[in-house]
């Protein structure tokens, strides 16, 4: 199980994938995806290399802390959405953003912000995420 409710298990997947990637060991398909996201975030790599701390760390936004696991998880979600064009139109928005910014990581971050806002809104209202609102946010990025 990867996307369950067990925070420790989820974090362990990131730690293990990064350890295996650094050691040049064979990776499962999901581990390849995780390692690619970690590779794009050198600021999080030292934390993943200290397993015990990574598994138990608390990240409090009110203290200015960014949760690297949440951030990297959103990257994985955005990459999956783009690969499957779900919601329909996200791949087109991503391509247009890449042309506009010339940087895939920066384009992912713009989409990630829209996704995070959509998920926050959904959680706050206790409803399913609104794909139309999400796509509207994404399209505004092109203005």
In terms of DSSP E residues, the strand content is under 5%
Number of helical elements: 8
Q: Structural class, please?
A: mainly alpha
- Mean pLDDT across all residues, rounded? 93
Overall spatial form: globular
Key phrases:
143 residues, mainly alpha, 2 domains, 8 helices, 69% helix, 0% strand, globular
Structure in words:
- By secondary structure, the chain is an all-alpha fold.
- It has two domains: 1-60, no CATH class; 85-143, no CATH class.
- The protein has helices spanning 7-23, 29-39, 45-48, 51-56, 68-84, 90-101, 104-125, 131-140.
- Helix 1 packs across helix 2 (29-39), helix 5 (68-84) crosses helix 7 and helix 7 (104-125) packs antiparallel against helix 8.
- The protein starts with 6 loop residues before the first helix and ends with a helix.
- The model has no long low-confidence stretch (mean pLDDT 93).
